[in-house]
Amino acid sequence: MTTSPTTVAAGVAPQRWQAPLDDAMTDTLVERLMRVAPFNQMDETAFPASIPLRGLLKNDTRIRRRAAGEVLMREGDYGDTAFLLLDGQARVTLESLTAAELGLAETPRRAGLGSAIRRTLATVLGPAKPPEVRDRIDARAADQRSVFVQDVSAVLDSKRTALLSPGEVFGELAVLTRAPRTATVFAEGSVVALEIRWQGLRDLMRFTPAWRAHIDRLYRDNSLRVHLRATPLFTSLDEQALERVASAIEFATFGSFDWRDLPPDPTAVDPLDRVRREAQVVKQDDPIEYLLLVRSGFARVSVAQGEGQRTIAYHGKGSVLGAEALLSADNASARWPVSIHAVGYLDVLRLPTDVFLAEVGTTSDKVPVADSELPARTLDYLVDRRLINGVEAMVIDLDRCTRCDDCVRACAATHDGNPRFIRQGPTHDHFQFAHACMHCVDPVCMIGCPTGAIHRDPATGVVRVNDATCVGCSVCANACPYNNIQMVEVRAPEGAIVFDQVTGQPLLRAAKCDLCSDQPTGPACQHACPHDALVRIDLSSPHSLASLVSR
Question: Mind listing the domains of the chain with CATH numbers?
Answer without folding.
Answer: 232-255+263-374 (2.60.120.10)
